[in-house]
Amino acid sequence: MARRLELHTDRLFPAEPTVRSIARELYAQVAACPIVSPHGHCDPAWFADNDPFSDPTSLLVRPDHYLTRMLYSQGVALTSLGISATGHDDELGPGTARAAWQVFAQHYDLFRGTPSRIWLDQTFIDLFGLDVVLDGETADHYFDVISDALTRDEYRPRSLFESFNIEVLATTESPLDDLDGHKRLGAEGWGNRVITTFRPDPVVNPAHDGFVENVAALGTLTHRDTGRWDDYLASLWERRQVFRSFGATATDHGHPAATTADLSAEKCQQLLTGALSGHLDDREADLFRGQVLTEMAAMSLEDGLVMQIHAGSRRDHNPLVHRLYGRDRGADIPGPTDYVESLRPLLNRFGNDSRLTVILFTLDESAYSRELAPLAGHYPCLLLGPPWWFFDSVEGIRRYRRAITETAGYANTAGFNDDTRAFLSIPARHDLARRVECGELAYLVSEHRLTLEDASELAEDCAHRLARRAYRLGVR
Predict the structure, then answer these.
(1) pLDDT score at 475
(2) Are strands 382-384 and 358-362 parallel, antiparallel or unpaired?
(3) In this structure, how many other beta carbons lie within 10 angstroms of the beta carbon of residue 209?
(4) Which residues pair with 311 in a beta bridge?
(5) Which residues contact 189 (CB under 8 A, 6 or more apart)?
(6) Inter-residue contact 385 to 414 (CB < 8 Å)
(7) CA separation for the pair 277, 62 (Å, rounded)
């Protein structure tokens, strides 16, 4: 017999009755706030084309590495989820999509207690009206209901965007991207609603697949000799300005460490030459990435783009998965990260300039109270990004606020971003964050560390105002 699927109205609120009642009151004020999504990985072509999504598996399972990594950890073959062993996910046929969904459904119990389960259950109920728990027996019912919905106009990407109450959504593109989707969106009046973000990793990280070819392609695109340090930087600047013309307000840097550097032009040229010849060791490659971060900060002072530094992921840790299935298949693992010394070269040059905004993200929670909160609580250019990736969760948000608030406050944080490829989960992710933030604020009110009035203002800040301010999207 199918189990009933329900969402409790008090989910994620504190269990203590007095605190829970305060959390309810705060949440009621922000539940319907517009969604500001300043950092994510949705495909702009979805909104430019506005075609129906193809099938439940391609929409909800294949692109979500939160899901695929858990399934892989329990011995589920990625090919059984419709993920190609060629590294290219072509469109699934109806039979293959249904079979992959069945595999996912049979293992749905693996996600008990995880944020993925919370996001998905809420999506299934709120968006598709499903009222039984997903499992092997209900898999076909789910697949049929969702597939039927996806054929209707109200489930096309732009209609969902509107129904989700999204005000602005940022995607993330390489400097080599032609930004075709954004060009078409701009021509149709959506250019200020779906904006791009400049992600230079493919031409900045010597360890990135195809780095040498990518740098050459950058030179072709900008008609410059990117083997020369000055021309390399000029090419990056030129592409930033193109991204700005398509709404970009931020850059994003996904580096394995938070290393920054401030080297002579001669040394920079040596590192670039070494990177392009494949002769840099790990330390030199880290130094090269670190120098480019400092150069990006200098450019941000000129063009106003906000910097995001996502440090600490040991990407594609499993070489077999990387070789067979390509990047971003759930094999990325957090590692310890030093911020105090690593950021010093950049901060020595720019840390006291309030015109610059650098948002720091970490996968090393031990750094919250020891390094990041004190840094952001002092340097005018620094803000702390929200809990990221593995810590974008109920307990992750709670640990974050309790570790940093007494040192950095709320004003030195950047609000919430969903950082997702899973478009349908965006409302549920923001709802989870709002509920948990309201619960944390309720504790402070119950202990008379905040007034209810202050907590109400902070709840609205956490819901959308901090993100608007941090990413220069306007404050309301």
Answers:
(1) 45
(2) parallel
(3) 12
(4) 255, 362
(5) none
(6) yes
(7) 36
Say how far apart CA 212 and CA 218 lie, in whole Å. 10
- One-letter amino acid at 33 equals C
- How many Å apart are CA 81 and CA 164, to the nearest integer? 27
Q: Which domains does the chain have, with CATH numbers?
A: 54-152 (1.10.2020.10), 157-470 (3.20.20.140)
Query: pTM of the prediction?
Result: 0.96
Segment 277-319, tens digit of pLDDT = 999 999 999 999 999 999 999 999 999 999 999 999 988 898 8
Residues listed for the chain: 476
Tokens 């790990």 label which residue?
282
Q: 436: which 2 tokens? A: 């948990």
Chain-centre distance for alpha carbon 180: 22
